[in-house]
Structure formats: structure tokens, C-alpha cells
Amino acid sequence: MPTTDPETAQGIRLQKILAYCGFCSRRKAETLILDGRVTVNGTIVKTLGTRGDPAKDRICVDGKPIRFNANEDPIHTYIAVNKPKGVVTTCAQKNAKIILDLVPVKKRVYPVGRLDKDSVGLVLLTDDGDLHNRLSHPSHDHEKEYLVFTVLPVSDPDLSAMAQGMVINGKKTRQARVRRVSENGFKIVLKQGVNRQIRKMVGKTGNQVAMLKRIRMANICLGSLPPGKWRYLTEKEVEKLRQ
């Protein structure tokens, strides 16, 4: 973040400071603020949009100070993981194997979005809060592609219905690209992330998901990465993600 950023004239939003430091995503930072876990110069802040000056203010989460240097160009970490079934895509959950258990790195990284416990495939991890926010927010139209196999054969009308969008939790999903790969299988490309969206859409056709695998997020493909394994993204991959 350059010192010429116009936002610094009135201070920087606290959620942006936490995200830039790699402490957490902006969404998580907003939750921490609303929960009263963030302080500025010893005062608890619960109002979103509150700004601080990291060069002058002491900003803490749960009493621990956040390190911030606006003149640095931090070296962030970007990782792709092939999540196996049964692993939870979160940073902490009691009595469960979490995605971070698969990635023994010292950096504090966190997942971009969620992939439910019964699903498998690509999960991205990073400590780059700005990129995390860009990839997570539906307004940026980043694609997520899945390979799906159902218990019963899936009909052409059912595939068409999913492609056109279905009402889930009272709201119609955005249009998707759907392509059949077998009698019981199809690929689907989404640009949003409604909780368990594909499983719910398949359920509305009277069918059930037998296997759901995420094979691509934006320009990052799962490829031949084995289940349970991980790799760092290349510089070219990260550069394209930022576009």
C-alpha cells in the first residue's frame, strides 16, 4: 500500500489494516470489530468504517498489537490444496481435521471461501487480505468450476434448470454454465457462492449429489495435485489472479 493512498489522509479503515497485515480477511476483520475484539489505543471499537493511523495508533486484536508498515511491499503466501473428503475448510474447529492441518507452513494463511466437509478438490489459502476479498466477493465475477456426479441419472431439463438459476433460500441463483460429461455427471461453472448451492440445486431436481469436486477457481486449476497435497502458486498464477 503506497503512502500516497488518498485514504491515509483520514486514516485507514481498520478492516483494511487487518487484511493488509495478513491477519485475516476483510470479512473476518468486520466480525472481529463487531464482536468488540479490536481496540485502538486501548479503546474497544465496534463501528465498521472506523479508521486508524497505523503509524501513530496502537491497534490490537484480543490485546495483541498488529504490525503494520505502509511503506513495505509484503511478501504474501499463496497456496493451492486438494482437500479430501472429511476435512473442514476453516481455520479452527474442535474435534475436526481442518484445512490448515494439511499445510504445515509458518505463515498465518486462511482459506478463500468454503468447500463443505463432504466435497473435495481445490481450496486456495493466502495471507493476502486484499486478494482474498477480491476473490471472495461475487461482484468481481471470479469463476469456480465443479465436477459433479449424482446418484440418479441427470436429465437435460434438470441441467438446463440449474444453468438458468434456481430459487434457493428465497433468492434466485445467478445463471451458470453447465455441461454434461456422463449420464450421471456434469461440470458447472458458478460466479457466486451460496452455501451448499450445487447440492441444493441438485436436490430441487429430486436427485442427490454422489460426488462434488471443485476443479478450478478463477485461473487456478486443480490439475493432477493429489488429494491431501498442496503447492505454492506460481508468480504468473498470482499475477493473473490480480487482474
Kindly describe this structure:
This protein is elongated. The chain has 243 residues and is of the alpha+beta class. Strands 7, 8, 9, 10, 13, 14, 15, 16 and 17 form a nine-stranded mixed β-sheet that branches. A hairpin with a 2-residue loop joins strand 11 and strand 12. Helix 1 (14-20) crosses helix 2 (26-34). The protein has six helices and 17 strands.
Break the fold down into its secondary structure elements and pairings.
Layout: E1 12-13, H1 14-20, H2 26-34, E2 38-40, E3 43-44, E4 51-52, E5 59-61, E6 64-65, E7 78-83, E8 110-111, E9 120-126, H3 129-136, E10 144-150, H4 156-164, E11 167-168, E12 171-172, E13 177-180, E14 185-190, H5 197-204, E15 209-217, E16 220-221, E17 230-232, H6 235-241
Parallel strand pairs: 9-15
Antiparallel strand pairs: 1-4, 2-3, 2-5, 5-6, 7-9, 7-17, 8-9, 10-14, 10-15, 11-12, 13-14, 15-16
Helix pairs in contact: 1-2
